[in-house]
Backbone:
């Protein structure tokens, strides 16, 4: 793989990224978009699905699952899914570290498949993560 490109395509029906342990962090705009998509008021969505920590918000995890919105075959709020989910695998910590990109490819079948993506494009996409979650990327 040339140093100036990455290769990725999202595999339809794959939810491997959603099944990994960890948290789904959300921004204010993510919260509003998901609430609107579900036909809920933002405060009702937050009360039901969100945990606020000091400088971040994240989705609650239901018992035995990683996410309330993960269903067999995909995300039930796909058109309004959080920035973190939408941008995967173009996260700064993956795009900026070749070893992490390859390690992620162990569970993500789309890494190493599909079109070549210029590293500059991937870095620009990763910057959107930094803008959406500034507390995580100081």
Residues:
């Amino acid at each position: 793989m040339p140093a100036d490109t990455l290769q990725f395509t999202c595999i339809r029906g794959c939810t491997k990224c959603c099944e990994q342990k960890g948290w789904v962090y959300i921004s204010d705009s993510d919260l509003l978009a998901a609430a609107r998509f579900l036909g809920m008021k933002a405060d009702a969505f937050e009360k039901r699905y969100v945990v606020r920590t000091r400088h971040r918000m994240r989705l609650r995890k239901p018992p035995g699952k990683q996410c309330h919105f993960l269903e067999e075959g995909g995300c039930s709020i796909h058109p309004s899914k959080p920035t973190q989910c939408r941008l995967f695998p173009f996260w700064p910590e993956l795009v900026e570290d070749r070893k992490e990109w390859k390690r992620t490819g162990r569970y993500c079948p789309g890494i190493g498949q599909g079109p070549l993506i210029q590293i500059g494009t991937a870095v620009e996409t990763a910057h959107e993560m930094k803008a959406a979650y500034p507390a995580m990327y100081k």
Summary: Residues 46 and 111 are 33 Å apart (CA to CA). Residues 119-132 form the longest helix (14 residues).
